[in-house]
Specification:
Blueprint (H helix, E strand, L loop, with lengths): L2 H8 L7 E5 L3 H12 L4 E6 L35 H8 L11 H19 L3 E5 L2 E6 L4 E5 L4 E4 L1 E4 L22 E2 L16 E5 L3 H12 L5 E6 L25 H15 L1 H6 L2 H10 L2 H19 L4 H12 L3 E14 L2 E8 L6 E5 L1 E4 L13 H8 L19 E3 L5 E7 L5 H4 L5 H15 L11
Parallel strand pairs: 1-2, 1-7, 2-3, 7-16, 8-14, 9-10, 9-14, 10-11
Antiparallel strand pairs: 4-5, 5-6, 11-12, 12-13, 15-16
Helix pairs in contact: 2-4, 2-13, 5-10
Bound molecules: flavin-adenine dinucleotide (FAD).
């Protein structure tokens, strides 16, 4: 037994010799890499897709799908901030200020994972299968795989990414003609079977909508695209970075005071800097907010926050503007009210924002671009269901994902965090809010890896 494990055992702390990680997107793959870097427990990384280290975001097949964060902020490694920018520079893809292809970021992650796996020998096992159950005992967690294998491990980490969105309210997929409704915006089939006379409705006007509009454009779709959301807000573009904000003091914690503060700083610094300088404080603000404050933020401010905080690469914004200027893409504010099948398409009745009468649009296809809004209580994912049914996991109070404590440990039905169960990434938004992009997830992953490796204790160092 190593010195770290010996110290931990003497202090009565949990020692992890083996861990199963479900999901090999950014979060799960990076956890495996960091566990190895910290000489942590044996890890089994389970992924149901054929490719590891990409996940939903970085599988993006099309070159027009760019990162919405500059390369200089996209290092996977918290302790080597220039790692990705250097990787790009070495391949002639750009420098720290570039917005590179998401696919290339996937290649970067894939390479990093491959290199780690090659060095790890039997300390890392990659298993292509689906985790379908998790039985939690006092001494171990047993993870069941669809292929029949059962893995007995000391800890389980859930890194399954966002839950898929539900159909928009009022839309019953079974009541529509066969290929009208596209529930998965990244399915290549979204563009199939369309002609120049068709209209496609994108429900949602955020980053997912932008991806689908670009995919339709790239596939040569010459018809009309209408993107509809309650407020019709489009993500704002990045511009060349200005001087960093000069905020030293903590922002106000009362939402109305914070809003006034941000507005006044935006007048002085520009809105981008005023939003960006909140970044180091956002998790703290969320953690200290009451559930009532969180609900009010989600109800009233979230759409505005999302479009100012999660921005478009300048090249992407320019293409979207060009599509709008050419009349090929319309952004509409309004609320869908009914979907009535007609011919090979659907009449969509909606109430335009601010209007007092409904409008109707005949569309050939409807693509769900509402983004990661899945409700855990409605999830059909067997592994998550098994954790919820056994009381070892529950939805957070705002129903944004899984409830976790400050150490990213799953909180069960009894309100207690379990020392053998962890979750990472966007599913932990209820606890941290600002935990959907690489710069935040890599910090969370680093911390959890150090905990699993017993590397977070400093007393043995004599400090
Ligand atoms: C389209 C898009 C673009 C983005 N662009 C950026 C960006 O430019 N910059 C940035 O900083 N952030 C970006 N993000 C945000 C962020 O980087 C991602 O959300 C992040 O990659 C999340 O990774 P993840 O591993 O938690 O989830 P995912 O990437 O969703 O990975 C989860 C993996 O788990 C697997 N899985 C799920 N259930 C099971 C199971 N039961 N058994 C086995 N495997 C399972 C899935 O197949 C999947 O591969 C983007 C997100 C999206 C969706």
């Amino acid at each position: 037994m190593g010195a770290r494990a010996l110290c931990a055992r003497r202090a009565g702390r949990m020692i992890y010799k083996s861990v199963a990680i479900v999901g090999a997107g950014f979060s799960g793959s990076l956890l495996a890499i960091n566990i190895l870097r910290h000489a942590g427990p044996h890890a089994t990384l389970i992924e149901r897709r054929p490719v590891f280290g990409r996940g939903t975001a970085y599988t993006a097949p099309h070159p027009s799908h760019l990162l919405n964060v500059r390369a200089g902020n996209m290092s996977a490694l918290s302790d080597r901030p220039a790692h990705f920018a250097d990787w790009c520079a070495a391949r002639g893809l750009g420098d720290g200020g570039s917005f590179v292809q998401r696919k290339q970021y996937g290649e970067y992650l894939g390479e990093l994972l491959e290199r780690s796996a090659a060095r790890a020998g039997e300390r890392l096992r990659l298993v292509q299968d689906e985790a379908v159950s998790a039985a939690v005992g006092d001494d171990a967690v047993t993870v069941g795989l669809a292929g029949g294998e059962r893995l007995r491990v000391d800890a389980l980490v859930v890194a399954v990414g966002n839950l898929p969105p539900h159909p928009p309210p009022g839309l019953d997929p079974a009541a529509l003609p066969g290929d009208v409704y596209a529930p998965d915006p990244w399915d290549p089939g979204v563009v199939e079977g369309l002609t120049a006379d068709d209209t496609v409705l994108l429900v949602g006007t955020g980053l997912t909508m932008v991806d689908v509009a670009l995919s339709l454009d790239a596939a040569g779709f010459a018809g009309r695209i209408v993107a509809l959301s309650r407020r019709g807000l489009l993500p704002r573009p990045h511009v060349a970075p200005g001087p960093p904000g000069d905020r030293n003091e903590k922002p106000a914690t009362v939402a109305s005071a914070l809003l006034a503060e941000v507005r006044s700083r935006a007048d002085r610094l520009g809105w981008r800097a005023a939003v960006d300088e909140l970044r180091p404080f956002t998790q703290g603000l969320w953690l200290s907010a009451t559930e009532d404050q969180r609900s009010r933020f989600l109800r009233h401010l979230r759409p505005w926050w999302d479009v100012h905080r999660h921005r478009l690469a300048p090249q992407v914004a320019a293409r979207i503007e060009a599509m709008m200027a050419a009349g090929r893409l319309e952004i509409v504010g309004g609320k869908p009210r009914a979907y009535t099948p007609r011919g090979s398409g659907v009449d969509v009745t909606y109430r335009p924002r601010g209007a007092d009468a409904d409008a109707t649009l005949h569309v050939r296809r409807i693509v769900n671009c509402t983004g990661p809004q899945g409700d855990l209580a409605r999830s059909t994912e067997p592994a998550l269901k098994s954790l919820i049914e056994s009381g070892h996991a529950r939805a957070d109070a705002q129903r944004l994902g899984l409830d976790v404590d400050a150490q990213s440990r799953l909180v069960g039905a009894n309100g207690q965090a379990h020392p053998r169960l962890f979750a990472l990434g966007p599913m932990t938004r209820g606890a941290f809010w600002e935990i959907v992009a690489v710069p935040d997830i890599r910090t969370q992953v680093w911390t959890v890896a150090r905990r699993l490796a017993q590397a977070h204790w400093v007393e043995a160092e004599g400090l």
